[in-house]
């Protein structure tokens, strides 16, 4: 079981077991990150160490760049992130805010104040890892650490580095297949079922209107093939993100039509797994054309399979 501790500074670290320390922020825990933890598990097994991570609840960019709302959105909720870290073998997770004060630590400060207290006997970092206010690079770790150092090379897909930034780009355009390839698992979003306009019910396509539960990125506007998880059961459905332009809606809506499902679930939390994009959001010239399109969307969603696994 992973032990998680929120700390204010290095004095909050009370590590009693020797560790292999994995360095990074880890937004989304994509395939590139997973390679670091695979190496950490190998070292931990070889040397009888525990795996430790010290990272940040929010993006370090908040301390350096002009604020944009997108900076507060994550690829995974804090709960999902912690569950993923535990599944990757992390024994100890320390969370510290990336403040101006923390950012002021030089590379040597970081190792003397934090890494030493984390009882690190080995460190694992990505090839593009930077640390300290003096912006040292991963190849300079040896100047500050005498233990085992493993630098993991770039993990690529289609000759491009897998990164959180790249994944954010694929999410923005609604490319869920590429997003899943980069993450290694489907993007998902939790939402609380709330009351909407109930128009879908009148045309044979009732939807669960959702209020996002977490500060996570939603796919770009469109209609998607989705799996829906409710009370441990998984259903196929089709989900949409965007404004309901056919009815002159001007609010961003997030809703899902769950196939073969008729329960009232207001107030329940459900999880949407985004599988593939069907189409863009479009304005229809009448109810009949909207219904015809929804029927087509449903056929696509019901028959959809991931061709990469066939």
UniProtKB/TrEMBL annotation:
SUPFAM superfamilies: Nucleotidylyl transferase, Riboflavin kinase-like
EC number in record: 2.7.1.26, 2.7.7.2
Pfam families attached to this UniProt entry: FAD_syn (PF06574), Flavokinase (PF01687)
Keyword Flavoprotein: yes
Keywords of this entry: ATP-binding, FAD, Flavoprotein, FMN, Kinase, Multifunctional enzyme, Nucleotide-binding, Nucleotidyltransferase, Transferase
Recorded catalytic activity of this chain's protein: FMN + ATP + H(+) = FAD + diphosphate; riboflavin + ATP = FMN + ADP + H(+)
Pathway(s) served: Cofactor biosynthesis; FAD biosynthesis; FAD from FMN: step 1/1; Cofactor biosynthesis; FMN biosynthesis; FMN from riboflavin (ATP route): step 1/1
Top EC class for this record: transferase
InterPro entries reported in the protein's UniProt record: Cyt_trans-like, FAD_synthase, Riboflavin_kinase, Riboflavin_kinase_bac, Riboflavin_kinase_bac/euk, Riboflavin_kinase_dom_sf, Rossmann-like_a/b/a_fold
GO BP: any one term: FMN biosynthetic process
GO molecular function annotation: ATP binding; FMN adenylyltransferase activity; riboflavin kinase activity
Keyword set includes ATP-binding: yes
Family: Belongs to the ribF family.
Protein name: Riboflavin biosynthesis protein
Provenance organism: Streptococcus sanguinis
């Amino acid at each position: 079981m992973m032990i998680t501790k929120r700390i204010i500074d290095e004095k909050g670290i009370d590590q009693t077991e020797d560790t292999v320390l994995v360095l990074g922020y880890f937004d989304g825990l994509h395939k590139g990150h997973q390679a670091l933890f695979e190496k950490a598990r190998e070292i931990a097994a070889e040397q009888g160490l525990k795996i430790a991570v010290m990272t940040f609840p929010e993006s370090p960019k908040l301390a350096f760049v002009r604020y944009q709302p997108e900076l507060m959105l994550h690829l995974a909720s804090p709960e999902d992130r912690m569950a993923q870290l535990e599944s990757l073998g992390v024994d100890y997770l320390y969370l510290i805010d990336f403040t101006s004060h923390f950012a002021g630590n030089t590379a040597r400060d970081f190792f003397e104040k934090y890494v030493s207290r984390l009882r690190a006997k080995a460190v694992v970092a990505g090839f593009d890892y930077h640390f300290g206010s003096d912006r040292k690079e991963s190849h300079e770790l040896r100047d500050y650490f005498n233990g085992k150092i493993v630098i993991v090379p770039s993990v690529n897909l289609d000759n491009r580095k897998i990164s959180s930034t790249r994944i954010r780009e694929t999410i923005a355009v609604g490319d869920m297949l590429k997003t899943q390839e980069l993450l290694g698992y489907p993007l998902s979003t939790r939402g609380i079922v709330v009351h909407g306009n109930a128009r879908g019910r009148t045309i044979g396509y009732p939807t669960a209107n959702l209020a996002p539960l977490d500060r996570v990125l939603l796919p770009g506007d469109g209609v998607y093939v989705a799996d829906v998880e409710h009370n441990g059961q998984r259903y196929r459905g089709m989900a949409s993100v965007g404004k309901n332009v056919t009815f002159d809606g001007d609010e961003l809506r997030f809703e899902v039509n769950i196939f073969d499902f008729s329960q009232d679930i207001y107030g329940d939390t459900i999880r949407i797994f985004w599988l593939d994009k069907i189409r863009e959001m479009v304005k229809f010239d009448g109810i009949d054309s909207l219904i015809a399109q929804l029927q087509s969307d449903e056929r696509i969603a019901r028959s959809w399979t991931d061709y990469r696994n066939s």
